[in-house]
């Protein structure tokens, strides 16, 4: 799960990490009010969307030479003007895709006198099963380019969970950032606090870009992105409360309510499968037969009528879906129960695309009989290959 920059900064501040003062705003008036609480004379108005690259982003509704999603404002009146231009408009950045994202929240924050911009991020590195801290002296808006053309300027420090963050890790960070004296000490303290925040909050990614050295010799987190391990969210109700569903795919949000694992994809064959491994095999075999899956969907072990109905509705709400393949293995949940669920659900959603069903497992014959006698145009399949061939052919024929 991702959160907004201002929320991430609130969390980091609780760990004693330095961030510029700022306030979120949902309206122009709130933005003006926020600016009024700041000392000035320099303010920064920042679009809050779950995507980076805002500084260089462009608003769809504004002229091409208009300012982007991170704007320096020299007066409260400029804050008012910028907030008015940004709220409700669509910001397109390298990370949003062409559709862009509507800006519904702003963050109005202190303008900082920047001496230098650094990069610092943390991820759970699956290759080493450890938290890695990635740092570079080349922070700012071109870090992707740095990683591409001068990868030697990016340093990775891995932390053994058995020891936790040690003083030598902090010294490595300071050394990689080419800091000395008081700033090096500050970098050591900051990196230790970041590690503490990262592990205490069950983050899976934390990126600070830029981390800045101010003209008066302090380190401040100027921009941050944070994401969390969804499986650990139950331990952090305060973090879960920061969820902004308007930033997420609406179908994925709906699926979450029914405990369905759903990921939207680009193809035209909707899949409903129980078990993640079977779901992946189903997607593979659709591709093998020359088509593409419209989604990944795992209805889980207990494919109840309620879940199957919700899954059908979610699949069908995707206008790209031209056919559905249901591939269910009846283990603990028997095939006849599943077949009843499919029939009830298919009737309820008024299915208007071809539906191929492959059932296997306990009580498979009873299940097949229920489908055959349902009066619905369900196309039965004997095995996975047969099912994939049939749905691909049906969809191609209808096209
Ligand atoms: P993004 O990474 O989405 O483009 P950032 O928050 O990193 O957004 O802002 C882009 C750039 O704007 C930063 O690299 C920095 O130079 C400048 N900037 C951001 N916040 C401030 C601030 N509070 N004071 C001064 N400059 C800022
Ligand atoms: Mg940034």
In short:
Mg(2+) binds at residues 209, 223. This protein has 13 helices and 19 strands.
Structure, described:
This protein is of the alpha+beta class. The chain folds into three domains: 21-110, ATP-grasp fold, A domain (Dna Ligase, domain 1, 2-Layer Sandwich), CATH 3.30.1490.20; 114-240, D-amino Acid Aminotransferase, Chain A, domain 1 (2-Layer Sandwich), CATH 3.30.470.20; 250-398, Succinyl-CoA synthetase domains (Rossmann fold, 3-Layer(aba) Sandwich), CATH 3.40.50. It is built from 13 helices and 19 strands. The protein has helices at residues 5-14, 28-37, 76-86, 143-149, 167-176, 181-200, 237-240, 250-257, 276-288, 305-316, 335-348, 364-372, 384-398; strands at 22-25, 43-47, 58-59, 70-73, 90-92, 101-102, 106-110, 114-125, 130-136, 154-159, 203-214, 219-221, 224-228, 261-264, 269-273, 295-298, 323-330, 355-361, 378-381. Strands 8, 9, 10, 11, 12 and 13 form a six-stranded antiparallel β-sheet that branches. Helix 5 (167-176) crosses helix 6. The model has no long low-confidence stretch (mean pLDDT 93). Magnesium ion binds next to loops.
Question: What's the shape?
Answer: elongated
Number of domains: 3
Count of runs of 4 or more consecutive helical residues: 13
**The CATH architecture of the largest domain:** 3-Layer(aba) Sandwich
- Measure the end-to-end span: 37 Å
- Provide the CATH superfamily of the largest domain: Succinyl-CoA synthetase domains
Q: What average pLDDT do the residues reach?
A: 93
Structural class: alpha+beta
Q: Please mark out the parts with pLDDT under 50 across 5 or more consecutive residues, or reply none.
A: none
Let me know the largest β-sheet: 6 strands, antiparallel
CATH topology-level fold name of the largest domain: Rossmann fold
């Amino acid at each position: 799960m991702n959160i907004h920059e201002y929320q991430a900064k609130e969390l980091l501040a609780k760990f004693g990490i330095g961030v510029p003062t700022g306030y979120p705003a949902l309206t122009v008036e709130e933005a003006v009010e926020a600016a009024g609480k700041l000392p000035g004379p320099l303010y920064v108005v920042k679009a809050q969307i779950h995507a980076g690259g805002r500084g260089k982003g462009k608003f769809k509704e504004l002229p091409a030479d208009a300012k982007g999603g991170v704007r320096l404002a020299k007066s409260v009146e400029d804050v008012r003007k910028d907030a008015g231009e940004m709220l409700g408009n669509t910001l397109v950045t390298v990370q949003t895709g062409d559709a862009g994202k509507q800006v519904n929240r702003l963050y109005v924050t202190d303008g900082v006198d920047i001496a230098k911009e650094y990069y610092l991020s943390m991820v759970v590195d699956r290759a080493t099963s450890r938290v890695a801290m990635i740092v570079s002296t080349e922070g700012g808006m071109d870090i992707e380019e740095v990683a591409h053309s001068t990868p030697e300027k990016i340093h990775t420090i891995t932390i053994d969970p058995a020891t936790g963050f040690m003083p030598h890790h902090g010294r490595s960070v300071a050394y990689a950032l080419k800091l000395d004296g008081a700033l090096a000490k500050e970098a050591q303290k900051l990196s230790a606090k970041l590690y503490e925040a990262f592990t205490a909050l069950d983050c899976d990614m934390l990126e600070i870009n830029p981390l800045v050295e101010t003209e008066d010799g302090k380190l401040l987190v100027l921009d941050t992105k944070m994401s969390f391990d969804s499986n650990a969210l139950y331990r952090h109700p305060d973090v879960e409360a920061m969820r902004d569903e308007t930033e997420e795919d609406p179908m994925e949000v709906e699926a979450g309510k029914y405990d369905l694992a759903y990921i939207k994809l680009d193809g035209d064959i909707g899949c409903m499968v129980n078990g993640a491994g079977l779901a992946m095999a189903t997607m593979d075999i659709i591709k093998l037969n020359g088509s593409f899956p419209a989604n990944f969907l795992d209805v889980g072990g207990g494919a109840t009528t309620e879940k199957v109905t919700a899954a059908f509705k979610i699949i069908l709400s995707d206008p790209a879906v031209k056919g559905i393949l249901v591939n269910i293995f009846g283990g603990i949940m028997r095939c006849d129960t599943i077949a009843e669920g499919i029939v009830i659900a298919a009737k309820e959603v008024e299915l208007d695309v071809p539906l191929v069903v492959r059932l296997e497992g306990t009580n498979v014959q009873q299940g097949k009989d229920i489908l055959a006698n349902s009066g619905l145009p369900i196309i039965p399949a004997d095995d996975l290959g047969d099912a994939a061939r049939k749905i691909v052919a049906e969809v191609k024929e209808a096209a």
